[in-house]
What we know:
18 helices; binds tryptophan
Amino acid sequence: MSQRETWATRAGFILAAVGSAVGLGNIWQFPFKTSEYGGATFLVVYLVAALGIGLPAMLAEFVIGRKSNLNAISAFERLGHRNWKWVGVLGVGIGFWILSYYSVVGGWVLRYIGGSLTGAYFADPASYFGSVSAGLDALVLHAVFMLLVVAIVAGGVEDGIERATKLMVPSIVVILGALAVWVFTLSGASPGYVYFLSPDLSQLSLSVSFDPFPSFSGPLTNVIPFAVSQAFFSLSLGMGAMITYASYVGEDQSLFGDSITVVVLNSAVGVLAGLVVIPLLFVQGVEPGSGGAGALFISLATAFAELPAGRLVGAVFFAVVLIAALSSAISLLEVVTSYVVDTYGARRPRVAAVLGGLIFLLGTPSAWDTAWLTWFDTLAYQLLLPLSVLGVLLFAGWVYGRPAVAELLSGSSFGQGVGVTWLWLARTVVILAVLLTLWLGIQTLFVDGAIVPPL
Ligand code: TRP
């Protein structure tokens, strides 16, 4: 087999990982969910989840990836634990699953760049969304988006992914920052900041009943699993993405430092997106509403339709969303591609193309009807991601254990104490939190009947 690829620079890895993390999750979901689940209260719960649970889990994936130097499935074998391969298989499967509908939303974004420039949605944003979000239009753009993703991944790690994300990530931050400043200068924006950031403590209430099994109810049962799963989704965990990206990293690099950078930048972009989106809605007197698939596209499009420079601002905004979505989607495809390339020594461009085609097919129901998209997304959030992260943590913490600490510390200036603290945190608190999330997620899935596909 030919020499395995690596990142050319340390910044290359960090930017690729941030590019994977920053995506539709930050811009499409995060601001709306924050306003819905208690503003500043949710923000705090989310940050605790990202730092307390997401960060240790990301370190677990980094360790598995760098130590094994292999894709997310073979990594477990290389580390001497064949029978934990299922964790990798589950992750790669979830990558397929998520990318299938992620790409559909990516297609909408493409559509909205054009729609902003021509003003196509200006007359009636809601019915425009209805007509382009499902059916043939959506299917075609889903295909176009997938083609773009395939093109970048086909280019390889250094020339494709690293080069693309080095350009994309700084652009996202700069343009979003500029938009946030511009929104700040608009009159009528201030109630938006209040709405986005004021704490709603009632979201933290919880009641427990024992008859005979403990069952939980109250707003917190939504907030906790949502914050934790949002942290997983947003940090690209539970899908082998971080295992795969870390497998191209050298032993002289501090995984600790890198993961903190990723978590901080990712949260910052989420907040920044909120500071653009929510006040912008208030400027035009649009209520943020309850999120959902169309929130960004309908409410925000309404705001752009009313603004003086709406066409330009709209196009720039959706272009940023597109860049963010693309840099995440390439990590999803890379996970699967990396496995096939490593295992069968097949040519990367062909593998990326075939896999891209299969993922396109899996996404057709979501493109045809948004009810399917919601179903795919709900299952990923409530069940698949927490399950897969649980597997990673059980493996890294309890099965692999001590060697993981050594691997974590390699290349960093932190002492043994920090490594051991991570290990015990991962083994106990973090696993318990993920179990709770999983339990609450399953409870929601079955109580709401969300588990039933929309046939
Ligand atoms: N993190 C990306 C976002 O916020 C989505 C994503 C990319 C992802 N890779 C992933 C989610 C792996 C889960 C697993 O939009």
